[in-house]
Amino acid sequence: MPRIEVEGAGDFQVEEGKRLVLAIEEDAGVDILHRCGAYAKCTTCRVEFLEGEPGKMTQAEIEVLQSRGLLGQARLSCQVLCDHDMNVRPLMTVTSTGLDGPGKTPEPNITPEPEWVDKPA
């Protein structure tokens, strides 16, 4: 089982293949945002990798991060699978933003259907 360390929340063993956004919310108990429902549209679930950043990204993640000027600065936790040890810093939470809730509950599988590509250099 992969170990996910979430800054400010602790270190957690999570189910292999679980979406990172769900691991942060359910296992670490962090009120991370996912306003679009985790469809790689809004970037509110973004995280900073402190260690263990995956070398693959979904095409949807690349496109939305490029369009927002965030490519190379953050990753979308809704587009990352927990398949190895990681250390992350959630960048937007309900608490830090004062919003009324995180958004629609993400589905267990990555949405939209992932097209995996190598992370741009």
TrEMBL record:
Residues 11-81 form the 2Fe-2S ferredoxin-type domain. GO terms for molecular function: iron-sulfur cluster binding. Residues 93-121 are annotated as: Disordered. InterPro entries: 2Fe-2S_ferredoxin-like_sf, 2Fe-2S_ferredoxin-type, Beta-grasp_dom_sf. SUPFAM superfamilies: 2Fe-2S ferredoxin-like. Transmembrane segments: none annotated. Gene3D superfamilies: 3.10.20.30. Pfam families: Fer2. This is Ferredoxin.
